[in-house]
């Protein structure tokens, strides 16, 4: 069969289609699919369906469809028909086959769970074309773009969310027996309708459960502002919707979603808002269904909005010399300063790289005249000799009454050493000792932690992604620090990229990026394309050194090849399936790189 080169017109695609089918009434939907296959440079002579480990079976689509497919499997016993459900990207989530011969045929072409059958990878096929066109489709025999699939007859129907009407995935019927395409499509439509009805029922049950809890909160004796949300729905009463608008609205939802995503998080959290107010969120989880149906938040707003936007605050505070003007950051600094000046033992919580130690050092510079700052890390070994030496050192430093002792990253202490440190501090508590400041990561500290309770003040230092507006200020500060001549500045596009980056390693990562730019950049204007690849990911995952190198290699390859996954995979010496899997792990979206 002659192979047309990529970039040919729609007419060329039609000629190619007619050449294969000898059918003058070629359907426009299939012709358009063949043209897309040519543009994707799919090889018609070989099948390359990427494989993803552990496809997501916890989605609303999978939960609704799998019981229906189980029932169909029993009804279609010994029929050479396979039923499949895929997600919106064409990943096969489940396959049911009751005919051994058909199973062999399907396995030979990798039409099995975990493999991706979008048009981008395997060209025209039932699953991929239904998803690409958003329409039910039958792809039979030689209408398939890849030769290995031409023995199959496939009917696929897109599955839409019952209320939002967004694409969730597809239901697919595959057979090797020639028959009525109309009957195959009628059956596929019927099953897809059952799946959509079940999704609607599940969604309705979850939303009704959440709505019931929300209404109970709104109708209580003193309701106040109330917010309820899950993955699909956000509800808020009039008191909240009128009181929280603009940037405050987005910040409140951002924090509430983050709280709802941590199933063990309970109680109340105080969230400084961009306007200068503080929102106290008390979470109550809705558990009327088998799985968590969402969460209801009772909201208490404290303070009044500032007369000027928070971004107008000077980027450097004259008192402590710390950069940032977001309310969340300023409140953490102010609360820490109050405790430090009063001599109160202080516990600073925050993700790695948020600046906990920098904050302590700034407090000591401003208010620690005549006092020495001693910093001690968690011991690197659990051996008795090392831990005994470490505890003895802590005991001696505590005896220096005028000094400040910083115990860094206490969440790394083992249970036994943690208890021994607690006992040591309890013996000193109430006596004349050094002022103790501890730092740890919030996810590592339990609500009933005895060591934490020894501190009279506990302050959470916000992650950079929650310091709205501070990324730009910090970037300019670090650029001045590492390029003191002041000849360089950021373009608007570069600042936009920096603001959108989730910065999983927080301020430490941002400083490292700017330091690298200052060392190798010679021009006056730093453009978006000058930023390193790590600024163009959407994942909050903290990576190891090896993972970061791998991520950057993939990003640079995609940028060099205009987001072409196949060419990048070839250059890196990995399969396209592996490439696809690593992109998902690292939060790489090719369309965001161009």
UniProtKB/TrEMBL annotation:
Domain Sigma-54 factor interaction: 448-519
Keyword entries, A-Z: ATP-binding, DNA-binding, Nucleotide-binding, Transcription, Transcription regulation
Record carries keyword Transcription regulation: yes
PROSITE patterns on file: SIGMA54_INTERACT_4
Protein's name in the database: Helix-turn-helix domain-containing protein
Organism for this UniProt entry: Streptomyces venetus
């Amino acid at each position: 069969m002659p192979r047309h080169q990529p970039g040919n017109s729609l007419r060329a695609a039609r000629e190619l289609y007619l050449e294969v089918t000898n059918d003058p009434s070629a359907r426009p939907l299939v012709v358009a699919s063949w043209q897309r296959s040519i543009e994707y440079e799919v090889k018609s002579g070989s099948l390359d369906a990427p494989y993803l480990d552990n496809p997501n079976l916890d989605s609303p689509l999978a939960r609704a469809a799998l019981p229906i497919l189980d029932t169909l499997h029993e009804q279609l016993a010994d029929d050479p028909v396979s039923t499949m459900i895929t997600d919106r990207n064409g990943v096969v989530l489940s396959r049911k086959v009751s005919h051994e011969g058909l199973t062999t045929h399907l396995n030979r072409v990798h039409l099995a769970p975990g493999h991706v059958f979008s048009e981008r990878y395997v060209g025209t096929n039932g699953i991929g074309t239904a998803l690409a066109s958003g329409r039910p489709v039958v792809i039979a025999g030689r209408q398939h773009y890849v030769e290995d699939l031409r023995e199959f007859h496939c009917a696929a129907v897109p599955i839409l969310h019952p209320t939002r009407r967004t694409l969730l995935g597809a239901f697919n019927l595959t057979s090797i027996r020639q028959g009525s395409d109309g009957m195959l499509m009628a059956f596929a439509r019927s099953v897809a309708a059952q799946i959509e009805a079940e999704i609607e029922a599940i969604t309705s049950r979850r939303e009704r459960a959440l709505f019931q809890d929300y209404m109970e909160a709104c109708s209580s004796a003193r309701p106040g502002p109330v917010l309820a949300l899950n993955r699909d729905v956000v509800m808020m009463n009039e008191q909240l919707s009128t009181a929280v608008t603009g940037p405050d609205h987005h910040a409140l939802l951002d924090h509430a979603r983050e709280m709802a995503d941590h199933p063990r998080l309970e109680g109340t959290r105080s969230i400084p808002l961009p306007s200068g107010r503080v929102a106290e969120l008390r979470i109550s989880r809705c558990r009327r269904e088998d799985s968590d149906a969402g969460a209801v938040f009772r909201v208490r707003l404290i303070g009044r909005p500032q007369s000027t936007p928070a971004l107008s605050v000077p980027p450097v505070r004259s008192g402590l010399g710390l950069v940032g003007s977001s309310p969340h950051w300023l409140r953490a600094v102010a609360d820490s300063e109050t405790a430090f000046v009063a001599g109160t033992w202080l516990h600073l919580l925050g993700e790695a790289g948020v600046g906990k130690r920098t904050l302590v050092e700034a407090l000591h510079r401003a208010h620690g005249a005549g006092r020495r700052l001693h910093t001690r890390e968690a011991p690197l070994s659990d051996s008795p000799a090392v831990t005994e030496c470490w505890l003895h050192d802590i005991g001696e430093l505590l005896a220096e009454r005028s000094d400040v002792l910083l115990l860094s990253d206490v969440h790394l202490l083992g249970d036994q050493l943690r208890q021994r440190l607690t006992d040591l501090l309890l013996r000193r508590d109430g006596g004349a000792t050094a002022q103790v400041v501890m730092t740890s990561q919030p996810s590592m500290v339990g609500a009933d932690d005895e060591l934490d309770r020894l501190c009279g003040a506990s302050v959470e230092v916000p992650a950079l992604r929650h310091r709205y507006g501070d990324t730009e200020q910090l970037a300019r500060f670090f650029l001045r620090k590492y390029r003191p001549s002041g000849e360089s500045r950021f373009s608007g596009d570069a600042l936009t990229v920096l603001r959108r980056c989730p910065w999983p390693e927080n301020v430490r990562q941002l400083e490292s990026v700017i330091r690298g730019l200052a060392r190798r950049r010679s021009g006056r204007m730093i453009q978006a394309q000058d930023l390193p690849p790590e600024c163009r990911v959407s994942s909050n995952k903290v990576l190891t050194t090896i993972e970061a190198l791998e991520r950057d290699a993939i990003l640079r390859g995609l940028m060099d090849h205009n987001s072409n996954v196949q060419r990048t995979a070839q250059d890196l010496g990995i399969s396209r399936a592996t490439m696809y899997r690593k992109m998902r792990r690292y939060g790489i979206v090719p369309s965001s790189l161009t």
